[in-house]
Structure formats: C-alpha cells, structure tokens
Design goal:
Elements lengths: L5 E5 L7 E6 L5 E5 L14 E8 L2 E16 L2 E13 L9 H19 L4 E2 L9 H5 L3 H5 L6
Antiparallel strand pairs: 1-2, 2-3, 4-5, 5-6, 6-7
Length: 150
C-alpha cells in the first residue's frame, strides 16, 4: 500500500496481521497492523522487497512485481524474480537541478539494466544463502531460527 507519507507492506499469509511500515521522510521501518493502513492508500501486489538504494534524488525502494516458479528443493518453492519496480521515497523532484535530474535518470537507467539481468532467485521457506552441506553442520538452534534471523 502506498500513501504520500508511507509504504505499507502487508503479508498475504493466512492469519498474518503484521504490516511493515516504511516512512518515506525519515526512512524509519516499523511494524504495525492492518487496521493502521489508511483506506486511501493505493494498493498493488508485490512478491517481495529486494532492498533500498540511495541515488541523487534520494532513497528508492526496489520491489519484486513478478515472479516465476523455477523449481523446488525438498518441497520448498524456488522463485525467480522477473520484474521489479523502483519506488521513490520522495514525492517530487523539484529539489533537484537539471543536472541532478539528468544524473538521477542515468542512475535509474543503470539500475533498471542490472535488474533486467537474470539471476535474482528467492524462496520464502528455504534458506538459499547457505549450502546444503553447511546447513547439515549447523546447530539445532540455527535450524529453528527464522530465515530473517539467519
């Protein structure tokens, strides 16, 4: 969900009530609940957050807008991110000079080129950041940690 003040990322899992709120001015990230999302927010589906990047115009949020299932590992779906959107935290570009606007446009073009290259894979239930050998040699405590905590 997008408002002029915040981005709200809502999990679509059954029973999930938490919403990630990203302040577009302070860039502060907090957890809130669904009822805090204003009804006036523009809603669009995404499949994940790739990250943030700071360019000339300010900070941008990079989100995955399309995905394709490419396989499974131990019954865990593996997805390929196939399309992205780059969302500006800033509401306007009036604070930039013509040279800064041009530089920002070039950097956005470069970023779009990098994102168009194959190779962005993810899983919401399996740890793709560690090899199977390493995972086999980790402690039970590590195995029980969420993917985010790892």
């Amino acid at each position: 969900h997008i408002t002029p003040e915040k981005f709200y990322v809502e999990a679509c899992d059954d029973g999930a009530d938490d919403v990630l709120a990203i302040d577009r001015v302070s860039t502060e990230v907090t957890l809130t609940v669904k009822k805090d999302v204003p009804p006036s927010a523009v809603t669009r589906p995404i499949f994940g957050i790739l990250g943030t990047i700071r360019l000339v115009a300010g900070t941008y949020l990079i989100v995955i807008t399309r995905k394709k299932k490419v396989g499974e590992i131990f019954s865990h779906a593996i997805w390929k991110a196939t399309d992205f959107d780059i969302l500006s935290y800033k509401k306007t570009m009036l604070h930039l000079t013509d040279i800064q606007l041009q530089d920002n446009k070039v950097f956005l073009s470069m970023l779009n080129h990098v994102l168009s290259v194959d190779g962005f894979y993810f899983s919401t239930t399996y740890d793709l950041t560690h090899t199977l050998q390493r995972l086999a040699n980790t402690s039970p405590e590590f195995q029980e940690m969420s993917l985010l905590e790892r």
